[in-house]
Amino acid sequence: MATVLITGASRGIGLEFSRQYAADGWHVIAACRNPAEAEDLDRVNGDVVKQALDVGDQASVAALSEAIHGEPVDVLINNAGVYLDRNVELGEFDYEHWRGSFEINVIGPMRLAEALAGNVSRSKRRLMVFITSQMGSIGDNTTGGAYAYRASKAALNAAVKSLSIELRPREVACLLLHPGWVRTDMGGKNASLDVRDSVNGMRRVIENFDFERSGSFLRYNGESVPW
Ligand SMILES: NC(=O)c1ccc[n+]([C@@H]2O[C@H](COP(=O)([O-])OP(=O)(O)OC[C@H]3O[C@@H](n4cnc5c(N)ncnc54)[C@H](OP(=O)(O)O)[C@@H]3O)[C@@H](O)[C@H]2O)c1
């Protein structure tokens, strides 16, 4: 049976990834900040194990790594993320929000990649997925704003590109995925996509993704996103 580890599994896109992989018979390691409070995960049918994980806390990442020591992880989905600077303009910057954006959106996924590279390389599928955003695309930025969020996702994209090159000899692939604009707490009610359709699309992209394309930046429907 294949294993997927999903960060930020308590709600939104992470919860839906957990639901869909569990429904398909995968072993799901659902990593979330407060497992006791992640009640929606308790209602997911299938082989789901909750694990405590705060991606902003090095000790928490080390504890997760210890808990799943030696266990192969076919697909690692770095999904946890924050969007802290909505509608913030010059003169209103909150540098704690900048620090928080980089801590969770960039350093968090890198912590996971470092801690779990061995688990992923021991698996059959050997894939690390990073849920980024089209808002991290510099080429696609025509509306501005969201300075810290955009900068953090652009930094994530740059870091994952390097990671994909370093992990090539270990035959571990890396994939940057934009989920679309999705109706979750983060995306809001007016977003264009239902979370089921976004995750369904991303799962298809993950399933068909081959090692030769490691380091790609793709949309949930498989199209390339400009850097
Ligand atoms: N929704 C969209 O339209 C959209 C578009 C582009 C990209 N994305 C990206 O997609 C990913 C998921 O977004 P979403 O829409 O599902 O957001 P969401 O509904 O706000 O859920 C965010 C998830 O991240 C978790 N999280 C936040 N900080 C964490 C931390 N320090 N450690 C561990 N988990 C943490 C949250 O856990 P708690 O429940 O504990 O807070 C929650 O499970 C993010 O990376 C986001 O940037 C979303």
Describe the model.
The structure is a single chain. With about 230 residues, the chain is of the alpha/beta class. The chain has a domain at about 5-10 and about 70-220: NAD(P)-binding Rossmann-like Domain (Rossmann fold, 3-Layer(aba) Sandwich), CATH 3.40.50.720. It has 6 helices and 7 strands, in the order βαβαβαβαβαβαβ. Strands 3-2-1-4-5-6-7 form a 7-stranded parallel beta sheet, with helices on both faces. β1 (about 5), α1 and β2 form a beta-alpha-beta unit. α1 packs across α6 (about 195-210), α3 (about 60-65) packs parallel to α4 (about 95-120) and α4 packs parallel to α5 (about 145-165). The radius of gyration is 16 Å and the shape is globular. The model has no long low-confidence stretch (mean pLDDT about 100). NADP nicotinamide-adenine-dinucleotide phosphate binds near residues 13, 79, 80 and 185.
Key features of this structure:
6 helices, binds NADP nicotinamide-adenine-dinucleotide phosphate, 227 residues, Rossmann fold, alpha/beta, globular
In brief, what are we looking at here?
The protein is 38% helix and 15% strand. It is an alpha/beta fold and 227 residues long. The protein has a seven-stranded parallel sheet, with helices on both faces.
- CATH class membership of the domain at 3-8 and 70-219: Alpha Beta
Euclidean distance between termini CA atoms? 35 Å
| Coarse structural class | alpha/beta
What CATH calls the topology of the domain at 3-8 and 70-219 is Rossmann fold
Rounded to an integer in angstroms, the radius of gyration calculated over CA atoms is 16 Å
**SSE order:** EHEHEHEHEHEHE
Give the ligands present.
NADP nicotinamide-adenine-dinucleotide phosphate
**Biggest beta-sheet profile:** 7 strands, parallel
Please tally the β strands and state the result: 7
Strand content: 15-25%
Judging from the principal axes of the Cα atoms, what is the shape?
globular
- The share of residues in helices is 25-40%
- The low-confidence runs, each spanning 5 or more residues with pLDDT under 50, are none
The fourth-level CATH homologous superfamily of the domain at 3-8 and 70-219 is NAD(P)-binding Rossmann-like Domain
- CATH architecture call of the domain at 3-8 and 70-219: 3-Layer(aba) Sandwich
Widest sheet: strand ordering: 3-2-1-4-5-6-7
